[in-house]
C-alpha cells in the first residue's frame, strides 16, 4: 500500500558493485570533510614528523654515519615512512569514534554496502596521506634532501609509501574496532608502533645496533619499506631492488591478513 | 485495517551469561505507536537493535513488514529508520550534510536527497542551523537532527530508542507532536521509554519489559486503571509502625504495599486519599513522618505488576497477539 510505495519511490535498486563504490565514496567524502573542517587533525599529524626532521637533521644527525650518502638523504625516506605509519593511528581513532558516538550503529541499520564504512575510512586516510607525504617531501627539500635518481623514482617511492600506509590503516582499523574508544585506540597504538618505528632503519643504520636486535631491525616491514624508498629515490647507494619487492610483499601480506579480520570485527562491532 | 507492521515471537538474546531478552513476543499494527516501557537494562534497547538488524538474536523470530530481520536484513533496512539513545550524527558535518549522507547511504535518487533534507531541517526547526557543523548544536538540536536523519528515506517503520531522554520540556512536546503527525501520515512507530507518561501520551499499546521479559502488554489506559491515578507514599519512623499502618489501610486500599518504613497506596480518588488516610491513622493516634502524592510512575507499574505476579501463577502461554488485551506471563522463569 501507499506506506511501502513511498519508501521505494525515491530509492533506487543498484547493482551490488555500484552500491559498494557509491557508498564507499560517500563515506570517504564524509571523512574528508572532517579533515578539512578540523585542520588540527592534519596539523598534529604533520607537526610531529617535522619536529623529528629538525631534531635528527640538526641535533643527532652529526653523530650518525651513513656514508657514502649524506645523512639528510638517508633520514628523509625514514621520516616519510614514520609519517604514514603514525598517520595510520587516525584510522583507529576514526573508527573508534564512530563506534562510541553511535554512528556505526546507524550505518549498520542502513541499506548500504557492508564494506563501505571500512573502505570509506581507509580511502579517506589514504587521500590524507597523499597530502601529508607531499608536504613532507617539501619539508625535506627545504632542509637539504635531494633525490639522487629521477622524478620517476620519487613517484615510485611515494606509491610504495602510500601502499604501505594503506596496509597499516587496515591493522589500525582492526585495533580501532577492537577497542571501540578513541582515547584507548590512541593509547593502544604506541606500544604496537614503538618497536616497529624505533627498532628500525628509519633514523639510524641497523649496523650500529646490538647484534641481537639487528635481525629484527633489518627485516621488519617498516625497515624494509624505508629501504625500498631509499633505493627508489637514492639508487643503489640507498638500498636494493629486492627491498622494493619485499616491501610490496609486506603490503599485500598485511592486507590479506588484516582486511578479513577487520571486516569480521566490523560485522560483530557496536 | 489491522495489518501487522512488526511481529516478534520468542525473541531471545544472551550476552555471555546475561539474559538480555527471553522469549519476548509482541506485535504492532501498521500506523500505530507501540511503546516498550521498562527501566534501564530491561532489554528495550536490545529489542530495538535486533529489529533494526544491528544485532542478531540467539533465538526467536522478528518480522518487519513481513521481512525477517536475520534472513532478509537488507530488505528490512530499506523499510526502517532508527534514532538511538545517543545522537548518532557526525559532529563535523553540518546538519544538511548529515542528512545528505544518510540520503545517499539509503540509496535515494540523488535529485530527491537535497529537497528532502531541506524539508526535514525546516520541519525540525533546524533551518537556521542547517549549514553549521553539528558540534555547535545544543543537545536538543542534535537529538532532533538524529530523528530527522532516521526519517530521510521516508521509512514506513520508525524505531525510536528513548527519543526524549535529556530533552527539555519544549523540545519533548515538539517531538511528541511530530511523532503523532508521522503516525497520521502512515508511519508505524516503535519507541522505548522509561516514562509512563510518555507511553501514555503516545502509544496505543505498551509492553512492559522487566529483566528481558514482557510482563504486561496492554493499552496504557488499562495499565493506568490497574494502578489508580494517584499514588500516595507514607513514611514512618520504623518498620513496625509502617507495617501497622499498612494493616490499618489495606482494608480500604487493597493495593497497599509496604517497603521498609514506607507504605504505598494507589487510588482513583485523587488527592482525597490524603484526607482519608490521615483520618484513619489519626483515629489510632498515628501520623506519618513523611508524606507524598504523585502520578503513577514506572516504579508504580512495576510494583503493581510484580505484586500481582504471585497471584497470577500458571496463566496462559499463548503468543501475545492472541492474548490481546491481557497480560502475558511466562510459565517458567
CATH fold naming of the largest domain in chain B: Rossmann fold
State the secondary-structure class of chain B: alpha/beta
The arrangement of helices and strands of chain A along the chain is HHHHHHHHHHHH
Q: Work out the helix count of chain A.
A: 12
Distance between the termini of chain B: 36 Å
General description of the model:
Chain A starts with a helix and ends with a helix. Chain A is mainly alpha-helical. Chain A has helices at 2-9, 16-37, 40-60, 71-87, 89-101, 103-108, 116-142, 151-179, 182-198, 214-219, 221-234, 241-268. Chain A has one domain. The radius of gyration of chain A is 21 Å and the shape is elongated. In chain A, helix 2 (16-37) crosses helix 7, helix 5 runs antiparallel to helix 9 (182-198) and helix 8 (151-179) packs antiparallel against helix 11 (221-234). Chain A is 77% helix and 0% strand. By secondary structure, chain B is an alpha/beta fold. Chain B has helices at 44-51, 73-77, 95-105, 110-123, 139-151, 169-184, 196-202, 220-227, 239-249, 272-283, 298-309, and strands spanning 4-15, 18-29, 33-37, 59-64, 67-68, 80-83, 157-161, 188-193, 205-210, 213-218, 230-235, 257-259, 262-267, 290-294. Chain B has a six-stranded mixed β-sheet, with helices on both faces. Chain B has a four-stranded antiparallel β-sheet with strand order 2-1-4-5. In chain B, strands 12-13-11-14 form a four-stranded antiparallel β-sheet, covered by helices on one side. In chain B, helix 3 (95-105) crosses helix 4 (110-123) and helix 3 packs parallel to helix 5 (139-151). The longest helix of chain B has 16 residues, at 169-184. Chain B is elongated, with a radius of gyration of 23 Å. The two termini of chain B are 36 Å apart. Classes of the chains: A mainly alpha (270), B alpha/beta (333). The interface between A and B is large, with 36 and 45 residues.
Amino acid at each position: 500500500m501507499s506506506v511501502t510505495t513511498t519508501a521505494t519511490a525515491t530509492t533506487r535498486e543498484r547493482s551490488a558493485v555500484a552500491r559498494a563504490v557509491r557508498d564507499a565514496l560517500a563515506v570517504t567524502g564524509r571523512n574528508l570533510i572532517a579533515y578539512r573542517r578540523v585542520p588540527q587533525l592534519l596539523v598534529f599529524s604533520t607537526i610531529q614528523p617535522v619536529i623529528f626532521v629538525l631534531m635528527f637533521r640538526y641535533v643527532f644527525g652529526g653523530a650518525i654515519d651513513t656514508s657514502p650518502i649524506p645523512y639528510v638523504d638517508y633520514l628523509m625516506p625514514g621520516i616519510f615512512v614514520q609519517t604514514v605509519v603514525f598517520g595510520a593511528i587516525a584510522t583507529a581513532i576514526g573508527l573508534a569514534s564512530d563506534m562510541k558516538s553511535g554512528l556505526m550503529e546507524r550505518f549498520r541499520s542502513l541499506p548500504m554496502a557492508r564494506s563501505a564504512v571500512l573502505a570509506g575510512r581507509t580511502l579517506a586516510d589514504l587521500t590524507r596521506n597523499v597530502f601529508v607525504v607531499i608536504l613532507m617531501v617539501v619539508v625535506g627539500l627545504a632542509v637539504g634532501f635531494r633525490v639522487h635518481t629521477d622524478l620517476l623514482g620519487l613517484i615510485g617511492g611515494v606509491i610504495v609509501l602510500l601502499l604501505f600506509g594503506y596496509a597499516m590503516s587496515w591493522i589500525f582499523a582492526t585495533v580501532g574496532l577492537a577497542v571501540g574508544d578513541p582515547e584507548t585506540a590512541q593509547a593502544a597504538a604506541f606500544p604496537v608502533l614503538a618497536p616497529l618505528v624505533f627498532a628500525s632503519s628509519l633514523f639510524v643504520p641497523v649496523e650500529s645496533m646490538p647484534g641481537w636486535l639487528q635481525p629484527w631491525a633489518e627485516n621488519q616491514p617498516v625497515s624494509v619499506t624505508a629501504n625500498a624508498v631509499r633505493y627508489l629515490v637514492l639508487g643503489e647507494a640507498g638500498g636494493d631492488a629486492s627491498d622494493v619487492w619485499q616491501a610490496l610483499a609486506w603490503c599485500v601480506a598485511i592486507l590479506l591478513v588484516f582486511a578479513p579480520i577487520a571486516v569480521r570485527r566490523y560485522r560483530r562491532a557496536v | 485495517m489491522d495489518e501487522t507492521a512488526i511481529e516478534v515471537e520468542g525473541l531471545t538474546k544472551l550476552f555471555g551469561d546475561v539474559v538480555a531478552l527471553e522469549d519476548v513476543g509482541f506485535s504492532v499494527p501498521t500506523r500505530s505507536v507501540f511503546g516498550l516501557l521498562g527501566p534501564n537494562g530491561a532489554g528495550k534497547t536490545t529489542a530495538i537493535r535486533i529489529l533494526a538488524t544491528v544485532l542478531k538474536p540467539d533465538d526467536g523470530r522478528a518480522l518487519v513488514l513481513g521481512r525477517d530481520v536475520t534472513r532478509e536484513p537488507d530488505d528490512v533496512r530499506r523499510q526502517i529508520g532508527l534514532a538511538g539513545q545517543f545522537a548518532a550524527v557526525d559532529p563535523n558535518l553540518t546538519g544538511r550534510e548529515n542528512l545528505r549522507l544518510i540520503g545517499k547511504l539509503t540509496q535515494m535518487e540523488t535529485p530527491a536527497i537535497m529537497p528532502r533534507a531541506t524539508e526535514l531541517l525546516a520541519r525540525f526547526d533546524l533551518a537556521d542551523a542547517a549549514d553549521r557543523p553539528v558540534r555547535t548544536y545544543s543537545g536538543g538540536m542534535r537529538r532532533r537532527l538524529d530523528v530527522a536523519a532516521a526519517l530521510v528515506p521516508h521509512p514506513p517503520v520508525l524505531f525510536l530508542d528513548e527519543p526524549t531522554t535529556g530533552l527539555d520540556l519544549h523540545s519533548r512536546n515538539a517531538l511528541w507532536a511530530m511523532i503523532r503527525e508521522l503516525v497520521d501520515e502512515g508511519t508505524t512507530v516503535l519507541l522505548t521509554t522509561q516514562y509512563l507518561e510518555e507511553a501514555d501520551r503516545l502509544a496505543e499499546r505498551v509492553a512492559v519489559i522487566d529483566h528481558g521479559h514482557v510482563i504486561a502488554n496492554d493499552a496504557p489506559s488499562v495499565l493506568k486503571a490497574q494502578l489508580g491515578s494517584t499514588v500516595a507514599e507514607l513514611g514512618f519512623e520504623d518498620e513496625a509502625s509502617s507495617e501497622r499502618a499498612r494493616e490499618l489501610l489495606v482494608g480500604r486500599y487493597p493495593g497497599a504495599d509496604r517497603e521498609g518504613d514506607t507504605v504505598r497506596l494507589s487510588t482513583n480518588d485523587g488527592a482525597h486519599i490524603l484526607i482519608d488516610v490521615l483520618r484513619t491513622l489519626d483515629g489510632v493516634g498515628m501520623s506519618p513522618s513523611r508524606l507524598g502524592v504523585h502520578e503513577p510512575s514506572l516504579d508504580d507499574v512495576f510494583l503493581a505488576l510484580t505484586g500481582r505476579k504471585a497471584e497470577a501463577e500458571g496463566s496462559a502461554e499463548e503468543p501475545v497477539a492472541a492474548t490481546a488485551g491481557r497480560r502475558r506471563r511466562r510459565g517458567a522463569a
